[in-house]
Specification:
Elements: H1 2-18, E1 22-34, E2 42-54, E3 57-74, E4 78-98, E5 103-124, E6 130-150, E7 155-165, E8 169-180
Antiparallel strand pairs: 1-2, 1-8, 2-3, 3-4, 4-5, 5-6, 6-7, 7-8
InterPro entries: OMP/PagP_B-barrel, OmpA-like_TM_dom
Pfam family, one: OmpA_membrane
Family: Belongs to the outer membrane OOP (TC 1.B.6) superfamily. OmpA family.
């Protein structure tokens, strides 16, 4: 009887670890793509901080460097080069669905601030080269889906897909590591 009580108590403690409230922070690495022809996928890096209010809800703030998208085209008159660097600051509400003591699914919706630094250069065959740099920013909606696997009391890994609906749709698939406080 005593062993069953200890086992039941241990299971309750472990399940409370997964659903425990509190702060968390982490890093991520992934791959993003922008819905514009001619641009290749880019490696992304991010940092995140959040607070889990209860088992099914958290708020997150994250910064993601979505990479630098480059496009080069050789024309009869010369070479055209475009380079766009994209950064995102995202604030999201996260709905969480625990499936077991150590695994959960989540969906998130939020608002993100984006900033694009665009450089365009033209190298003419007759020597009349020119370049232009422009910055653009704005606020738009973000959506995400993912899964979290918990490894012990203070560490978890996430796999997340995010869609950022700016002037052009940007998607990001990332793997993250979180530390819970």
């Amino acid at each position: 009887m005593f062993k069953k009580g200890v086992l039941a108590s241990s299971l309750l403690i472990l399940s409370s670890v997964v659903s425990a409230e509190g702060f968390y922070t982490g890093i991520s690495v992934g791959e993003s793509s922008v819905d514009v022809s001619g641009f290749d996928d880019e490696t992304t890096y991010g940092i995140v901080g959040g607070y889990k209010f209860f088992e099914h809800f958290a708020l997150e703030l994250s910064y993601i460097d979505l990479g630098t998208y480059e496009f080069n085209e050789v024309l009869e008159q010369g070479i055209v080069e475009f380079e766009n660097k994209i950064d995102v600051l995202d604030f999201s509400a996260v709905g969480i669905l625990p499936l077991s003591d150590s695994f959960e699914l989540f969906a998130e919706a939020g608002v993100f601030y984006w900033e694009v630094e665009a450089d365009a250069r033209f190298q003419s065959i007759d020597g009349n080269d020119f370049s232009i740099t422009a910055n653009e920013d704005g606020f738009d909606l973000s959506l995400g889906l993912g899964a979290t696997a918990h490894f012990g009391e203070n560490f978890s890994m996430t796999l997340k897909y995010q869609s950022f609906d700016a002037d052009d749709e940007i998607s990001n698939l990332s793997l993250g590591a979180l530390i819970h406080f």
